[in-house]
Structures are given as C-alpha cells and as structure tokens.
Amino acid sequence: MNDCIFCKIANKEIPSLIVYEDTKTMAFLDISPINKGHVLVIPKKHFVNLLDVDKEYLNAVMQTSQKVTKAVKEAVNADGLNVSINNFKEAGQAVFHLHVHIIPRFKNDGLKTWERSKEKNWDDNEVVKEIKSKL
Ligand code: 5GP
Ligand code: ZN
To answer: Which of 35, 40, 93 has the most ligand 1 atoms within 8 A of CB, as the residue to mutate?
Structure first.
C-alpha cells in the first residue's frame, strides 16, 4: 500500500522506535502512548485488520505480541497489560494496517476500560444463533 503509514514504517521509509522485528513482524513504540511502554505490533505485509489477515501473518503477529508483551511487562514493571486490536473506524481504528496495541497498566493509573451496557435490548439466545450461523 503506497500511502499506508505502517507499511512505510515496516519498510523503514519513515523512522520508528523499533523494539523487535523478524521477517514477518515488527514492534515499535506508539508515537502517542497511552502509558509508558505502549507498543504496536504489525505484520510487515499490508492487511487492514484482524478480519482480512491471513493465517501465516496472524500466527506471526500473535507470537510476536506475546513475546513483546512479556518483555514490556518486565521492562516497565507493569502490573497488567491491555492487548487489543481496533477494527474499523467505528471501533477506533485510525490506521488501516493491522496493529496490536500492547498497553502497560499500572495500579491506580486512572485509565478506564469500557463501561458495560446497562440495559440489554436484545435476546442473547438469538445472538448466539446468529453468530453460529456465520461460522
Ligand atoms: P488505532 O487507533 O488505529 O488503533 O491506533 C493507531 C495508533 O498508531 C495510535 O495509537 C497512534 O498514536 C499510532 N500512530 C499513528 N501514526 C504513527 C506513527 O507515525 N508512528 C508511530 N510510532 N505510531 C503512530
Ligand atoms: Zn500498510
């Protein structure tokens, strides 16, 4: 992808603070970190998000994510870590090249995770049926 910023980072056309790379993946510091040690893991090949990545790169990205998550935890002495992928604009995806956020968490860091729906205006049994029918 010509105009993809993470392809450019993968190709080293633009600089980043790389913490790890191998043939298929790269991990680098987020330019605008949520906490100290916020790392992004990307495939070196362009995929939009979790939905279109092929198995080979998915496996590689997940293995790198686990390896880097362990290293980040020790490096910044994190108490916990959020590891997540935003898929599509409505879910907060701003860069349309698959990336896994590794976000260290610290006791009393004040960050809030998502609020739960207060009212369920759907039937969960129907939801299970719909999901199963798409698998
Ligand atoms: P998203 O919202 O798409 O899940 O996350 C994109 C992330 O990429 C953001 O956390 C943002 O700070 C980071 N980011 C965007 N542009 C750059 C860049 O040029 N370099 C680095 N290192 N991170 C970037
Ligand atoms: Zn890309």
So the answer is: 40
**pLDDT at residue 99 greater than cutoff 80:** yes
Give distance in angstroms: CA of 115 to centre of ligand 1: 24
**Is the whole-model pTM more than 0.90?**
yes
**Residue 121 confidence (pLDDT):** 93
Q: Which among 44, 60, 41, 56 is positioned nearest to 100, based on CA atoms?
A: 41
Q: Structural domain tally of the chain?
A: 1
Nearest Cα residue to atom 17 of ligand 1: 31
* CATH classification of the domain holding 48: 3.30.428.10
Cα 95 to averaged position of ligand 1 atoms, centre (Å): 7
- The range of the structural domain enclosing residue 53 comes to 5-134
Q: 103-117 as b/e, with b when 16 or more CB fall inside 10 Å? A: bbbeeeeeeeeeeee
Would you name the residues annotated as active-site residues?
A: 99
The sign of the dihedral angle between the CA atoms of 12, 60, 68, 85 is positive
